[in-house]
Design brief:
The chain is of the alpha/beta class. The protein has 27 helices and 34 strands. Strands 25, 26, 27, 28, 29, 30, 31, 32, 33 and 34 form a 10-stranded mixed β-sheet that branches. The protein has a 7-stranded mixed β-sheet with strand order 6-5-17-16-15-7-8, with helices on one face. The protein starts with 33 loop residues before the first strand and ends in a 38-residue tail after the last helix. Bound molecules: iron/sulfur cluster (SF4). Iron/sulfur cluster binds next to α5.
Length: 944
């Protein structure tokens, strides 16, 4: 690399890149022809020539950059390496990035559209045409729209892999049909952030932090973990201290300066104890809090007779949190009180350079998990480290979603299958409850798409999903949009193969660090063929078999729903460059790059490129900070043009224009503030109080459903953590990556030696883990890496198929018998584990592992948190040695018990259906696909 001129070691946008460290990465000027010797020809020196085309990894949400090495002799991708010009990943990937090569060359992948030829779930399939599939769905969807059944079209997504595209499609159709996986993932964690600041994810600036606190396994497997892991290590190398709260000695915890193996669910108690120490020892940032916390509202509402001063507010906080002594927190969590005090002081001293993050983990496991992220953000607020260098920003400050051309108006429909009256504050759709709502006759789904989503396997109570998906009255037509077989696709009417990471277009941006960037996923074979003169009109022409990409599928489907434009849909899918003609996918992105990304046209022009060609060349772009600042955006002055005609509320200092809040006066300055009702950070949430949860008006500590008081270790009861990931696997998409399965092919139950002795098991023994609704059988792994009283099992193994060669890949799935016995109990038993087999890939005959891991989610009932709606994953279980008739990976589920547990959790909700204002949900709260304000009014929308 030393012979590359210095200026080439920086991205074209000026960001210093780590190209200098990557001796093997050729500079972009040579990407049209990179020579490498053929490793397999060694010791002969046989030259291979490659063209390098960037794309974006699709194996997790981090959206890291990849470089496809296309062999110029064969025209096939030979390998994927990191793209050093990608601002998030900077050329470094985890194991899953390069394993994309396994996925695209997987011999078991689906290459042609399939239609069921028997009953749903019977496993009989025939090849169909894309035309037939598109016409079938277009007819069904058009009828639903024309007959005003616009809550009967549902798009249910696991990993979107794009920013904004589908929201535009659903908006154009005028349906309220966006459903997601988020309430099995992050909706509680998001809620805790949202209620504070109106934005629902954190974005820590780890690289510049002095102290980092993580509640999850971020170096290893957390959210955006590879880009963030790099920066956590950078921060540590510059002297930052790292503390990790995790009951499991994760790889991250093993790298930390402080490991706090808290009892799951006690995290908020520890965080509030830290907050109290920071307050007591006056380590808080008084000026920041005085200006940006809504303390005046809190004092005026809750303590009108007290002096309405900031100083009195601080005294009230100390009173409020008086019981949260280090000793109390130590008693709840099991973490040493002295460590809690030490960390609290270090956080206080780090001040504005305190970075913190939680994702999934405690927030996803516990009843009231949202109080954990809320208590963590409280520490960021106390230290004034919100959106500072080295602090933690709300994610929208570090993410950039460019606007497409012609955005549809929001729909006036509200779908109560997604946001039912019991959950007015749910942070995302109540996705896990869909099978029960359908069973109860709350509605039906006329056309259902699952995309990168496998609810039968991923969601709790998967057998309820099997029952819903096989019921043609409840779900009339279902297409699984997926590159590979999965357990849910088995029950669909159509299986439509969609492209993998290097076979599709998407635009992505993630809050990986203190900057804003976009990444361009592109079909590399299409780009390569076009560059070399092949006439490619659609991506499927360059993909293997008849693999489409979703973007083109939705354009095509929308034209067929509204062929003459009379429904007002077609216009959104017409070219912005060729009026009245069908939009091409290149035109869609070309328009965005030319019009919506600040600085990109100029950067492209400097190289003599169009913005589209620039993005095709580099695959990513960082928005210059002068065009998109990232720090302390709450302090930004309200734009002068907006102030014309604006009014200031004399009580609250909130600035409004035409009834819309646009800012707040702070020390005489009109600032944009935060998108909350007070435009400030809401320590006190009037929303919580008004919507039935007064005890949640301020950050607090909710006893989880798995609080130690509910679990008796001496009598065989344990707390099961089922949420942790291995760094090498993904929920359902890694099953066709042979390298990843070779690395990780077991998910034993972690048990502390003390507990193992009590139970009477050793490593490798079979144990039966009994849940509320059934059990599973797995092997024990006895380790001090888990705290006593808690057991843990990672969540991405135990894939199954009902046939050989179809259903899921054979690298990691077992052929099973699955069905209901005469007592109505679902049972699964493995018929055949992993075996070597003959195929086009010689590696299939080299498979050395035999077990598949064990699926556990089927044995969990739903636990919807009554506030956030999040499924609370942690389970109270009993663990015992396996019974004589038990076999590895046996599963048993009682659906009647599962339904009872669902009803018990529903009984905890507080529906707000009698409100005078008729609102279904606070107007200020976000929704992933947001209908018009009129749809928020129940009085205007009869419930179907
Ligand atoms: S962290 Fe790994 S799986 Fe996720 S996008 Fe980056 S390389 Fe891909």
């Amino acid at each position: 690399m030393s012979d590359i001129p210095l200026q080439q070691q920086f991205a074209p946008n000026g960001e210093p890149m780590v190209v200098r460290d990557l001796a093997s990465c050729p500079p972009p000027e040579s990407w049209h022809d990179v020579m490498e010797y053929d490793a397999k020809a060694w010791p002969r020196k046989v030259e291979r020539h490659y063209e390098l085309i960037p794309t974006i990894c699709f194996n997790c949400e981090a959206a890291c950059g990849l470089l496809a090495y296309i062999d110029k002799e064969t025209g096939r991708v030979k390998k994927f390496e990191g793209n050093p010009y990608h601002p998030g990943s900077r050329g470094r990937n985890c194991a899953k990035g390069p394993a994309t090569i396994n996925q695209i060359h997987d011999h078991d992948r689906i290459l042609y559209p399939m239609k069921r030829a028997g009953k749903r779930g019977e496993g009989k399939w025939e090849r169909t045409t894309w035309d037939e599939a598109l016409n079938t769905f277009a007819t069904k969807i058009r009828a639903a729209i024309v007959e005003d059944r616009r809550d009967e079209v549902m798009y249910h997504v696991g990993r979107p892999g794009h920013d904004g595209y589908m929201e535009r499609v659903l908006g154009a159709w005028g349906v309220d049909g966006h459903n997601s996986h988020t309430n099995v993932c992050s909706s509680s964690g998001r809620f805790g952030y949202h209620i504070w600041c109106g934005m629902d994810r954190p974005s820590p600036d780890h690289a510049n932090a002095r102290f980092i606190l993580l509640i999850s396994a971020h170096l290893e497997t957390g959210h955006y973990f590879n880009p963030q892991a790099q920066r956590i290590m950078e921060g540590k190398m510059k002297g930052a201290k790292l503390a990790v709260m995790d009951p499991r000695l994760s790889n991250t915890a093993s790298m930390a300066d402080y490991w706090m193996p808290t009892w799951p669910g006690s995290e908020a108690a520890v965080l509030l104890a830290m907050a109290r120490i920071i307050l007591q020892e006056k380590l808080y940032n008084a000026e920041y809090m005085r200006r940006w916390v809504n303390w005046q509202e809190y004092m005026a509402t809750e303590y009108p007779d007290e002096a309405q001063t900031f100083e009195r507010f601080i005294e009230m906080l100390l009173n409020l949190y008086a019981e949260y002594t280090p000793e109390f927190a130590a008693g709840e969590s099991g973490v040493d009180a002295a460590m809690i005090v030490d960390i609290a002081r270090q956080i206080g001293h780090a001040g504005t350079a305190f970075a913190a993050h939680t994702w999934r983990a405690a927030t996803a496991g516990n009843l009231g998990g949202w109080q954990v992220s809320r208590a963590l953000w409280f520490l960021s607020v106390l230290t004034g480290s919100v959106g500072t260098p080295g602090g933690t920003a709300p994610y929208t400050w570090n993410k950039f979603v460019p606007a497409p051309f012609l955005k549809p108006s929001p729909t006036d429909v509200w779908n109560e299958l997604l946001f039912p009256p019991e959950y007015p504050l749910a942070n995302y759709e109540m996705s896990i409850l869909l099978p029960y709502f359908l069973k109860e006759g709350r509605g039906k789904v006329a056309a259902y798409f699952t995309r990168v989503y496998n609810p039968v396997w991923t969601n709790p109570d998967g057998t309820a999903w099997i029952e819903a998906l096989t019921n043609e009255q409840q779900i009339e037509l279902h297409a699984a949009l997926t590159p590979t077989w999965n357990e849910t696709a088995w029950y669909a009417d159509y299986v439509l193969p969609m492209g993998l990471a290097s076979e599709r277009h998407d635009l992505m941006s993630q809050e990986t660090h203190a900057a804003r960037w976009i990444g361009f996923r592109q079909p590399v074979h299409r780009v390569y063929k076009k560059r070399h003169g092949e006439p490619i009109e659609f991506t499927y022409q360059a993909n293997p078999g008849e693999v489409w990409e979703e973007d083109e599928f939705w354009i095509e489907l929308s034209w067929r729903i509204d062929p003459d434009g009379s429904l007002g849909i077609r216009k959104y899918f017409e070219s912005p460059y060729r009026p009245g003609e069908k939009l091409t996918i290149e035109e869609y992105y070309r328009w965005i790059f030319e019009n919506s990304v600040p600085g990109l046209p100029e950067a492209a022009a400097k190289e003599g490129l169009t913005p589209l060609v620039y993005m095709q060349k580099y695959g990513a772009f960082t928005i210059p900070e002068d065009k998109a600042p990232v720090f302390q955006l709450n302090e930004q002055p309200v734009k002068l043009e907006l102030l014309q005609g604006a009014v200031v509320d004399s009580q609250t200092d909130v600035i409004s224009r035409d009834g819309v809040k646009i800012g707040v006066m702070v020390d005489g300055k009109a600032c944009e503030g935060f998108p909350t009702p007070s435009r400030k950070l809401e320590f006190y949430s009037a929303t919580m109080k008004e919507w039935g949860w007064p005890e949640g008006a301020v950050p607090g500590y909710t006893h989880s459903h798995v609080h130690p008081a509910n679990i008796d270790n001496e009598h065989g009861e344990y707390l099961l953590i089922p949420t942790f990931r291995l760094p090498t696997l993904i929920h359902t998409r890694s099953h066709n990556a042979k390298w990843l399965n070779e690395i990780s092919n077991a998910n034993p139950v972690w048990i502390h030696p003390v507990d193992a002795q009590r139970i009477g098991v050793q490593t490798g023994d079979l144990v039966r883990v009994n849940t509320e609704i059934g059990y599973y059988v797995n092997r024990a792994w006895v380790t001090e890496g888990i705290r006593p009283g808690v057991v843990a099992c990672s969540h991405h193994m135990g894939r199954w198929r009902l046939e050989t060669g179809r259903g899921t890949d054979r690298w990691n799935s077992a052929k099973v018998a699955l069905g209901k016995d005469q007592d109505g109990i679902w049972r699964m038993r493995q018929l055949e584990g992993v075996r070597p087999y003959a195929s086009k890939d010689p590696d299939t005959e080299r498979i050395f592992w035999r077990e598949t891991g064990v699926h556990q989610n089927l044995t969990f009932p739903v636990h919807p948190d009554p506030v956030s709606g999040m499924h609370c994953w942690h389970q109270k279980v009993t663990v015992e040695p396996a019974q004589p008739t038990d076999r590895y990976a046996d599963i048993s589920v009682d659906p009647a018990k599962a339904y009872l547990v669902y009803k018990q959790w529903m009984a905890m909700t507080r529906p707000q259906t009698e409100r005078a204002d008729g609102l279904r949900r606070p107007l200020w709260m976000i929704r992933p696909y947001r209908p018009a304000a009129s749809a928020f009014k129940r009085t205007l929308q009869p419930t179907r």
